[in-house]
Design brief:
18 strands; about 475 residues; 4-stranded mixed beta sheet; globular; L-2-Hydroxyisocaproate Dehydrogenase, Chain A, domain 2
Length: about 475
């Protein structure tokens, strides 16, 4: 399959004609795929000079059209201008196109109007780091499409980067991943593309999502594991400091020590707001409610995720018995219990009620945790990898709230910058129940009532976090003041 790239000026009638024909063929022919790069007149010559320099071409006018062999981003094969494009289409497809100047002017005017409206709409540039695995990347892109799917008001540009791209021999692997994603999710090719460096992924980016796997390797010592993660995050922080916008938001949604890695970024990312660095932790609770729903024979949608406390990926705690369940009950109870089966009188009025899981199950939390861990290990063995869907769904839930038009009062679990609430150390990332304030900053709920068992667990986690901070020199930046 050949992919066509059509570039030109936005006010050029030849470019307009070529794009109109390419769009028609794309709709009629399943294997005709094209990508357009349209520039304003003041940008066109700069872009054309760069294009000629990179490919040793000598094109002088708009449009410039070429094929990319095998896949988008593959080797370029120059066709030339509009005349050469017509010759190719006639020889290969037997296709001819003739349009009057008046029709071309109308189409060009419509295209310019659409382009100006796009500039007025909100554009989110999202970069994803760690994209070599299709099974991990695909559900994340699916969630992103639905998080920002608000018609023409929001436009997405998704940039993909993986460290494997640093090796030229591995580039084909990433291109295969992109092709599979586009075929499965029907993404618009213009909105999903590969970047060849981490710096390019971070530059002009609004949201940076890290999904690269940082799981502990077999036989790896815990100190070596955390040191490996720390070094990787320090290198990422250097690129962020040099290339990122001040408003950049960073979301860590990977397997491994997600709160530890976020803490390293908080320590070394000095050019962005520390409150814009968060770690997704709700996925741990999602795994809990799916098993608890089976245990008490309830629908998953009737459960509220329990809070997730701690240094997720290393040490965390979920008060399973505090999970809330929405049920329906008859009022009054006695009439529903004593009424005869043959009675035609109403049993009562069905009303919603919120109950805690501890009212339905008597197993200790420790025993439930053992069941959870056993199930996770079996699931991992069956899949041959860590489960991905809980993390993707948790990411979608977070972004829908963070980017919603109207701020709501939903409480979620999230790894955020700690200001010392609940006894956690200051200046590091810990998971806790949070709310989104009027400035769209996630903040903890200081007056949240806690059970004694939860307080004991939090104290143990806090002590572990303090020891980790001392060992790896984290938290020193905010030891005496809060950003």
């Amino acid at each position: 399959m050949a992919y066509f790239v059509i570039t030109g000026k936005n006010d050029c009638p030849n470019t307009t004609h070529a794009l109109h024909v390419a769009d028609y063929l794309n709709r009629k022919l399943p294997h005709f795929v094209y990508h357009s790069v349209v520039k304003a007149e003041d940008e066109w010559m700069i872009y054309l000079d760069q294009l000629n320099s990179e490919n040793n071409w000598h094109q002088t006018k708009s449009p410039v059209i070429w094929k990319e062999i095998s896949r988008m981003g593959g080797k370029k094969y120059l066709l030339g201008g509009l005349g050469e494009f017509w010759e190719y289409l006639y020889d290969y497809y037997g296709f001819q196109s003739r349009m009057s100047k008046e029709d071309l002017k109308k189409i060009m005017a419509d295209n310019l109007l659409i382009a100006s409206s796009k500039q007025e709409n909100q554009v989110h540039t999202i970069s994803i780091i760690g994209c070599s695995n299709t099974l991990v990347l695909q559900p994340h892109i699916y969630e992103l499409q639905h998080c920002f799917d608000s018609g023409q008001e929001t436009l997405l540009e998704i940039k993909l980067y993986d460290q494997r791209l640093d090796d030229p021999d591995e580039e084909d692997v990433m291109l295969d991943v992109i092709d599979e994603i586009k075929d499965t999710l029907k993404c618009i090719p213009q909105n999903l593309h590969i970047v060849l460096s981490q710096e390019e992924a971070i530059s002009n980016c609004d949201l940076l999502i890290i999904i690269e796997d940082y799981s502990r390797q077999s036989g790896e010592d815990i100190d070596l594991w955390l040191e490996r993660c720390r070094k990787s995050m320090v290198l990422l922080a250097d690129d962020v400091n040099q290339n990122a916008k001040r408003s950049l938001r960073i979301v860590l949604n990977h397997h491994g020590p997600v709160c530890f890695n976020a803490s390293v970024l908080m320590e070394y990312c000095t050019t962005i707001r520390v409150t814009n660095i968060v770690a997704v932790t709700t996925d741990e609770a999602i795994s809990v409610i799916s098993q608890m729903a089976e245990k008490v024979n309830e629908y998953v949608e009737n459960f509220w995720c329990p809070p997730v406390w701690g240094f997720c990926g290393i040490m965390s705690y979920i008060p399973i018995h505090a999970t809330c369940i929405k049920t329906s009950v008859y009022r009054p109870f006695k009439r529903a219990l004593k009424t005869k089966e043959t009675s035609k009188l109403p049993k009562g009025v069905i009303q919603p009620e919120i109950r805690f899981l501890e009212n339905l199950i008597k197993t200790d939390d420790d025993d439930l945790y053992e069941e959870l861990e056993s199930r996770k290990e079996k699931e991992k063995q069956l899949l041959g990898r860590e489960p991905v869907l809980p993390k993707a769904r948790a990411l979608g839930s977070l972004l829908k709230r963070w980017y919603a038009k109207n701020i709501n009062d939903d409480i979620i679990s999230l790894g955020i910058y700690s200001k010392g609430t609940f006894g956690f150390p200051k200046g590091v990332c810990v998971s806790q129940p949070v709310l989104l304030n009027e400035n769209r900053i996630w903040e903890s709920i200081p007056n949240l009532p806690l059970r004694e068992t939860t307080k004991v667990k939090i104290q143990a986690i806090s002590l572990h976090v303090e020891n980790t901070l001392k060992k790896y020199g984290l938290g020193e930046r905010f030891a005496h003041n809060v950003d």
